[in-house]
Amino acid sequence: MEFKLEAHRIVSISLGKIYNSRVQRGGIKLHKNLLVSLVLRSARQVYLSDPCPGLYLAGHPGTPAPPQQLGEPAAGPPAGWGEPPPPAARSAWPEPEPQPERPAVPEVLRTGDAETAAAVTGTGDALQGGEGEAAEAAWRRVEGPRETAAGGAGGPAGGSDVFPEGPRPARRPCGCPPGDEDTLSAAPRMDCCRTPRPAGDQPPATPPVCPRKRGAAGVGGGPAGCPAPGSTPLKKPRRNLEEQSGGAAVAAEEEEMETGNVANLISIFGSSFSGLLRKSPGGGREEAEGEETGPEATEPGQICCDKPVLRDINPWSTAIVAF
Amino acid sequence: MIPRLGALTQDTLWCFSQVKGTIEIGATEADIISTVEFNHTGELLATGDKGGRVVIFQREQESKNQVHRRGEYNVYSTFQSHEPEFDYLKSLEIEEKINKIRWLPQQNAAYFLLSTNDKTVKLWKVSERDKRPEGYNLKDEEGRLRDPATITTLRVPVLRPMDLMVEATPRRVFANAHTYHINSISVNSDYETYMSADDLRINLWNFEITNQSFNIVDIKPANMEELTEVITAAEFHPHHCNTFVYSSSKGTIRLCDMRASALCDRHTKFFEEPEDPSNRSFFSEIISSISDVKFSHSGRYIMTRDYLTVKVWDLNMENRPIETYQVHDYLRSKLCSLYENDCIFDKFECVWNGSDSVIMTGSYNNFFRMFDRNTKRDVTLEASRENSKPRAILKPRKVCVGGKRRKDEISVDSLDFSKKILHTAWHPSENIIAVAATNNLYIFQDKVN
C-alpha cells in the first residue's frame, strides 16, 4: 500500500512539474520533461502492479479502501477517462465552485484513483492553468479519433499538429490574457472563454477553452470532466469521505478538480506516446489507437481496473513528452 | 615557475587564492555563473552567467619578486554576449543564459571564443588596443572634420601609446540552426569547424560560414511520441578531427566517425553499462542521465558524469567503464526529496586535470570532489567565504551518513542544496582550479612549498 501512496505522490509531483515547465522562462525543456514522464511511467507501473484492493475512484486521498463506496463507483462509468459526457450528464453535473484552475489530472485520477487525485490537488496551485494549455493543444491533436470526446477541449483546429517541433507556445490558444495562471479569477476568464461554447453536445467549434474556464462548469464538458450519469452518485461518497476525514481543504479541492479541467489532461493524453510507455520506440501505434477508442467505449461497472487507469496514465506520459 | 602537473598525492594541499563576485546576499539571478573555461594556455579564464554576460580574467605575469605568489587572475574584459530574445513564431522566450564557452586556440594576437545560449552561438574576438593613431590630416584630435581649406601641410599619422583597452567584438553569429536547446559546443581539432548540440540534433559548422551548417546527428523520431532519449552533451576528440562522442539521457555514450557517413546516426562505438537491478527505483532513469562528457587530454578515455557518479571509460571497451567514482552516494536514499525540489535535475560537469591523473566534479553545499585515478584517493573540499583567507589551506570535508556525527563532519540533512557547484575548470597544465559557486568564482591553487 505504501508503494501505491508513494507512486501516487510522485505522480502528482510530476504533473506539477510538467505544469510549471510550461510557464518557465526559456520555453519547455525537452530533457527535463522527458525525465519527468519517465518517472510518471515508473510510478504508474508501480501503482498498477501493487495489488491493493482498495483502489477506489472517488475516495478521499489517503483513505485506503473505502468499502462503502465500492458499490457506487460501479455505477459510475469510467467516463471520466476522456469520454464526453452524454448531454444529460451535463445538466446533472453540479456547478462547482469557481475554481477553474484546478488541474484536470486530479479529476481523471479521481475517477480512477482517489488517492492520486487527492495528491494531485495537493500540489495545489502549481497545477493551475498550464495543464489546460497542454490539454487544449493535445485536445486538438487528438481531435480526429476522438470526435465524440471532443466536447471539452474545444474541438478545434482540425487535427493539425499543434505541437511545434520546439517548445510549445506558452500562450493559451483561446486568447485569454497570458501569464495569469497564478491569478485566476474565475469570472472574467470564464466569460471570455466559455461564451463561445455551445451548451449542446456538439464539441465546441470554437478554439480551445482555457481549462480554467471550463473548470467551473465542467460542462462543456471536458471529455473527462463530466462523466456519465453515474457521476453524481460518485460525488456523494466522496463528500462523505471527506467529511469523515475532516480534510476540508482537500475536499474542496477535490470538488474543484472534478470539474472540468480534468478533461484537458485527458485530452492531452488521449494521443499516443507509447514510445515512452513501452520502452521501445515504434511500438506505440496500436496501443495508442487502442487507448483512444477506449474511452469512447465506456464500460459501466468498471471502477478501477487496470485498463481505465491505464488510459489515464498512459496519456499523461505521452502528452508530457508530446510537448 | 615550472608548471607542475597535478597529482593528488598526500602532499597536495589546496589553498584559497581568489574569489570573484559579490558577497551580498541579494545578488541577482543574472549573476549566477553558468559556465567556466580556461583557455588553452591557462592565461585566460572565462565565465558566462545567466544574464548573458561573459567575464574574462587574465593571469597577471608572475613577478620575480614574489615567487611565492603565483599569478593572480584579474578582470580582463567584460561584455554582453547574448540578450534575451523572443521567438514570435513559437511564442517563447529565449534565455540569454550562457550555456557554454569554448576557447579557440590562439593563432594571432587576438583571442577567440565561442559562447552560446539556448539557440545561438557567437564567435567573439577579444583584442587589445594599446596604441592609437594620431596626427590625421583631415580630422582633428577629437575626430571632427577639418575644413580642407585650412590645411596647409601634410603629415603622416603616427601610432602613439594609449591606455590598454580590451575590446570584444562579435565576429560571427551562428543562428537559427537549432530547434531545441543547445547544451554543448565543441571546437574541432582542425580549428576550422566546431559542433553545436541540442536535445535531438548535432550540427557541424565552419567558422567562416554562418548561414549554413551540416546536421551530423539527428535522433528525432519521426513520431515525437516515440521519443525516449535526448542528447545531453557532445565533444570532439582532442586529436582526431573525424571523431566525436555524444551522451544521452539514458546513460549511454556514442562515439561517431564522420568519415563513415554524412549523417552519423549510426554510431561507431556504443558505451553502456548494464543497470544494477538492485538499485532500481522510480528515479533510476533520471540519475542515469549523463550530464557531462569529456575526453581526456590524451584522447584515450572519456569521463561521464551522472547524478551520483563519475565514470571513466576506455575508448576500447564499450561494455562498462573502467572506473566508477561515487560523488555523493549518500543522496541515493534522498532521491524522492531531490526530485521534489528539482535538484535531481541538476547538471553537474566534470573536468580532467592536465595530466589526466585527477578528475574533479561538484556537489552540494558548495562541496566539490577530486578523485586521483592512480592512488584512488579522493577528497572533498568546500568553496566558502569562511575559507577565503589568502593562501588558507582548504580542509577536507566529510559528510556523515550514519547517526554518529563526528566533530568536523556535516550530516546529510544539513547540506544546503541551494549551494551547488555545477561548473568547474582545471588549468591545462598547473594545479589551479576555478570553481563556480552560484554567483562567486573561487580560484584555488595548490600550495607552493
From TrEMBL, chain A:
A matching Pfam family: IER
Signal peptide: none
Biased composition (Low complexity): 68-82
Region (Disordered): 59-104, 122-141, 146-190, 214-255, 277-303
The family this protein is said to belong to: Belongs to the IER family.
Name assigned to this protein: Immediate early response gene 5 protein
Species this protein is from: Camelus ferus
UniProtKB/TrEMBL annotation, chain B:
Transmembrane segments: none
InterPro entries xref list: PP2A_PR55 (IPR000009), PP2A_PR55_CS (IPR018067), WD40/YVTN_repeat-like_dom_sf (IPR015943), WD40_repeat_dom_sf (IPR036322), WD40_rpt (IPR001680)
SMART domains reported for this sequence: WD40
Entry keywords, A to Z: Repeat, WD repeat
GO molecular function, one term: protein phosphatase regulator activity
Gene Ontology CC terms, in alphabetical order: protein phosphatase type 2A complex
Keyword Glycoprotein appears in the UniProt entry: no
Family stated for the protein in its record: Belongs to the phosphatase 2A regulatory subunit B family.
Name this polypeptide is given: Serine/threonine-protein phosphatase 2A 55 kDa regulatory subunit B
